[in-house]
Write a structure and sequence with these properties.
It is built from nine helices and twelve strands. The protein is α/β, with parallel strands linked by helices. It has a domain of 180 residues: P-loop containing nucleotide triphosphate hydrolases (Rossmann fold, 3-Layer(aba) Sandwich), CATH 3.40.50.300.
Length: 261
């Protein structure tokens, strides 16, 4: 365990490492959710985060996305130590999160959801108006480049399928994020065909140079999509593996403690 965590800290000087979280601790009252967990994300890769419920995965993600400030530890982004007090601060640094509820407004159109809270305006002073034409064109371009089988941006979100909604949420995060997109179980409620389409969207995102942090309980998906896997157990990152050099069986053993790193 110590070797794995030390390797994570040392690799923060690697130019290929975009983000490094070192010795992160977070407690909620008497519950120690993170006990000194460390991990790294490499540029242009899909990094998977796996572990049993209560292992600390979601708490780590919340620390990285600005929802919960760590009690101690260091987060380094692009070689600089960062500290996020709110999700907005994380977003400004290039970290976007696709929530499980997707945070979409069903009665608004696709383009309106894309720019929700970040509307583009034109004009000056009190005479500024929404630049609907530019927002529609920008949303259409970004979604077309990234997502698979997404309807026109004038469509209402309530008419979209589950896979299309997920693709929209991913495209929105990619359009605003730039550096890192965090996804929590992005295909948990989808069928086989829609899962395949969303996974292709995630691959396209990686191929565009964006780093992806993927939380998934689906080991087949982890093996299909990820380049690197971090295994969490009892508030620690107990192992890191290149996906091509491990197996589902080994990952299960690491999660349960049947095998040590």
């Amino acid at each position: 365990m110590t070797d794995t965590m030390t390797q994570s800290v040392d690799s923060s000087t690697d130019p290929d490492v975009l983000l490094s979280a070192t010795n992160i601790k977070k407690s909620f009252g008497g519950v120690h959710a993170l006990k000194g967990a460390s991990l790294t994300l490499r540029r242009g890769e899909i990094t998977a985060l796996i572990g049993d419920n209560g292992a600390g995965k979601s708490t780590m993600v919340r620390c990285l996305s600005g929802i919960h400030p760590p009690d101690s530890g260091t987060i380094t982004l692009d070689g600089e130590v960062v500290s996020f007090g709110t999700p907005k601060e994380a977003q400004k640094s290039g970290i976007e999160t696709v929530q499980q509820n997707l945070a979409l407004v069903e009665e608004l159109a696709v383009w309106q959801n894309f720019f929700l809270g970040r509307e583009l305006t034109q004009g000056f002073g009190p005479f500024r108006t929404l630049n609907r034409k530019l927002m529609k064109a920008t949303a259409q371009e970004l979604i077309t480049d990234l997502a698979v089988n997404v309807p026109p941006v004038t469509s209402k979100v309530r008419r979209l399928s589950g896979g299309q909604r997920q693709a929209l949420a991913i495209a929105r995060a990619a359009g605003w994020g730039g550096k890192i997109v965090i996804m929590d179980e992005p295909t948990a409620a989808l069928g086989v065909q829609e899962t395949a389409k969303v996974e292709q969207t995630i691959r396209t995102l990686r191929d565009a140079g964006v780093s992806v942090l993927l939380i998934s309980h689906n080991f087949d998906q982890v093996m299909r999509l990820s380049d690197h896997v971090w295994v969490f157990r009892a508030g620690l990152a107990v192992a890191g593996r290149r996906t091509a050099e491990t197996s589902g069986e080994e990952l299960v053993a690491l999660i349960t403690g049947a095998k040590e790193a």
